[in-house]
Structure formats: structure tokens, C-alpha cells
Amino acid sequence: MGVTITDEIAGTVELDADRLQELKAFDDTKSGVKGLVDEGVTKVPRLFHHPPDKFVKATKLDNTEHIIPVIDLADVGKDPSSHQQIIGRIREASEKWGFFQVLNHGIPVTVLEDMKDGVHRFYEQDTEVKKELYSRVQTKPFVYNSNYDLYCSPALNWRDTFVCFLAPNPPKPEDLPVVCRDILLEYGSYVNKLGIALFELLSEALGLHPHHLKNIGCAEGLLSLCHYYPACPEPELTLGTTKHADSSFLTVLLQDHIGGLQVLYQNMWIDIPPVPGALVVNIGDLLQLITNDRFKSVEHRVLANHIVPRISIACFFSEGIKSSPKLYGPIKEILSEENPPKYRETTFAEYVRYYNSKGLNGTSSLQHFRI
């Protein structure tokens, strides 16, 4: 017998009664996946079991065709020739991969390390302390839980997450946990500046004025998701993060040294190995929509691992005002008779609402908005 529940993310969904009971029991612990591991779990609960993936993993890592570009930004603005070379590399990466890594991005390595340490400190706190912050109320300035789409996803991910909007209105310091408060605000300020610089380069890569993407609001909002992927006793049965594309305009990701991030390219899973001091940048759905499929929002996933916990910090550039009536559609300056619009216009809120209601089920939200 099915049970209908109303979930803040999913809306109204139909669930098997036994599954709903298991989900609620897990949610009610308020200790997430880390709580399972702390209790010494030796088997992955069935809620986390994922079906086998149909795509193959690329094994020839020495093949340069299957290496995500690493782009050094040191010479941006240095001279016209160097600048255009960087623009060309960003254009190629955005059109072919939807992913690239950046070095010399302006954020000190000490800040990157402090940010990872701050996230680690949060998750290593006593469970009773974290329980006070566990919530599914998405409007809070700081939200900690496990699996935002808990009640609508086909299989849960082996990770816990805390979420915080860093722009346009940074949270009050007192609304953030002391263990990561200062570094979260400092890191957000740095990423905000980097995002504006990246949008300038992406605008130029499209043949537009450098401020075009910024002026239409792509860099207004900044949302951080700080993930903790505990070591997993049976990593072959589950995933750290299911195959998905991002709903944002652009994502800037800081990953630790553990690895596990993969991008889907030509029906193969390609590893994105951690590069010391680098940040991973990827195109989001809304940037693919407004560039009329020129830049690619590509599916990616995170593998579970059985060795040590993994930490990553994903910062999503989105619209700043959630309820704004502003419409986003393919940029008129890049359209032509040969390149007519492929998407209908949508508000940011409508897109994200659809994306969230669908959950991380492995299908693209963009199809819903195609003309």
C-alpha cells in the first residue's frame, strides 16, 4: 500500500509504506550518514542501494583526450595574446566538456585549506551538537541534513550536507556554527570575486561584452553546499552523489585530495583528479539554456569510497532574488536564423522548483524547457 506525503522539496509524492518508515527512521536520528558510520554499520542499508550504472569508466588516463583541462589564469589581462589564449581554452572546455579546473584563481591556498578544515570540524563535532542544527526547512540561513531529496529520490546518496546562502545577503555571523563561521564568510567573499571574473571570461568566450553575463544577473546569488562523504563499507552498492547536472549558471567546487568526482563524456565516466591548489569549474543548466546549448551542462557524479571521509565545497552561482519575475531565455545577441532559440523563457525560481521536484534521478531538467 502506498502512502502520500507532502515534502517541502518534492511536493506531494507517493511512497511505499515500508520505505517511508525506513526513511523517517533515518531522518529522525538527525545524525545523517555519518551517524550510521559512527555506529559501526558494516552493511549499506537498502535505502542507499543504487542500480548498476550502464556507462563505462575510462581507464586510459594517459589519453590526453580524456583529461579535463587545467587552465592557469595567471596571465589574464597580462597582454592581449595571453588573454585570448585563456579565453580560447575556456571556450573549448565549456563547449566540449562543460568542466575545467583553474589555477592562480586569486584565492590563497591557505584559505582553501582553512575552508576544508572548517567543514571537517563541523562534521567531526559531537552528534548532539549537530542535531540542534539538523533541519529540512530550506528558508533557514544555515541548513544541515542528509539528502535534500530524501523523500523523492530513488536511492539515497552516501553523504551529509550543510547549506548556506553567501550572497547577495551573507548570513549574520551568529546564524553560523562557530567552528566554521569565519572561514565560510571569508571563502564566500573570495569565490564571489572569482565568479565575477569567470563570468567576464565566459562572456568574452561567447563574443559578448565582458560584463554581459554579470549584467543579466548570473553572478548575483551564491549558494554553498558543504558535503561530507563518510567512508563506506560497501562502496560498490551506493554513490556519494548520483549522476546529475547542476541547476545553477556556474559552479565552483573545492574538493579535497581523496578524489571520486567523475564527469560523463561520450558515454564514459572520466575522473577529475584533484589538482593541488586548483578549483573545479562547471557549466550549469541555466548557462546552457541561455547560451542555447553552446556551453554544456554535463552530468557528473561522486563515487563512494571505503578508505577515508571525503570533503567538498560546491558554490553555485544563481539569481540573487528567489522570487524575481525576471525571465531567462537564449541570449538574443548569439541567436540567428541558423541558430534559433531552443528553449522557452523561464524564471530562475520556476527552473529550480522543477529541478528540485524531480530530485537527483539522473535525468536532465533542461528537456522540460525545450521548445
Automatic annotation (TrEMBL):
One MF term from GO for this chain?
Answer: metal ion binding
Cite the entry's keywords alphabetically.
Iron, Metal-binding, Oxidoreductase
Q: Where is the Fe2OG dioxygenase domain?
A: 218-320
Can the keyword Transport be found in this entry's annotation? no
Pfam families in the record: 2OG-FeII_Oxy, DIOX_N
The family database entries (InterPro entries) matched by this protein are listed as: DIOX_N, IPNS-like_FE2OG_OXY, IPNS-like_sf, Oxoglu/Fe-dep_dioxygenase_dom
Cofactors (names): Fe cation
PANTHER family given in the database record: 2OG-FE(II) OXYGENASE FAMILY OXIDOREDUCTASE, OXIDOREDUCTASE, 2OG-FE II OXYGENASE FAMILY PROTEIN
Question: Which family, according to UniProt?
Answer: Belongs to the iron/ascorbate-dependent oxidoreductase family.
The identity of this protein, by name, is Fe2OG dioxygenase domain-containing protein
